């Protein structure tokens, strides 16, 4: 499980999130999660993501926005890489017996 921290700077056409705030905002995102591969070509993801949007008092108002979200995902992969891994895994299992 690796944490990911992302910071960005955004400039909008309007004052966000309310009038009197700034067009310039900072966005900080932190993600924690894990991905499990129960079999080749399939994976499950679970995690939590936190976002903070703020103008760091660059304007009179700084009504910052915070959000935290738990997520669950399922992925299916296709292609030669999945088949190569499946064959490699089968060979490994056969050699181990």
Number of strands: 4
Strand order of the largest sheet: 1-2-3-4
Terminal-residue CA separation: 32 Å
Structural class: alpha+beta
**Order of helical and strand elements:** EEEEH
Mean pLDDT: 79
Low-confidence stretches: none
**Broad shape:** rod-shaped
Largest sheet: 4 strands, antiparallel
Strand content: over 45%
Rounded radius of gyration (Å): 22 Å
Describe the overall structure:
With 97 residues, the chain is an alpha+beta fold. It has one domain. It has one helix and four strands, in the order ββββα. A four-stranded antiparallel beta sheet has the order 1-2-3-4, with no helix packed on it. It starts with a strand and ends with a helix.
Summarize the structure.
With 97 residues, the chain is α+β, with helices and mostly antiparallel strands.
Task: Set out the fold topology.
Layout: E1 4-16, E2 22-39, E3 42-54, E4 65-76, H1 80-96
Antiparallel strand pairs: 1-2, 2-3, 3-4
Features:
about 100 residues, alpha+beta, 1 helix
């Amino acid at each position: 499980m690796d944490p990911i921290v992302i910071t960005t700077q955004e400039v909008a056409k309007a004052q966000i999130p309310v009038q009197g705030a700034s067009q310039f905002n900072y966005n900080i995102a932190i993600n924690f999660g894990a991905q499990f591969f129960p079999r080749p070509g399939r994976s499950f993801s679970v995690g939590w993501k936190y976002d903070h949007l703020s103008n760091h008092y660059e304007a009179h108002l700084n009504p910052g926005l915070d959000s935290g979200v738990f997520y669950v995902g399922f992925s299916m992969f296709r292609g030669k890489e999945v088949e190569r891994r499946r064959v490699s895994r089968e060979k490994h299992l056969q050699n181990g017996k």
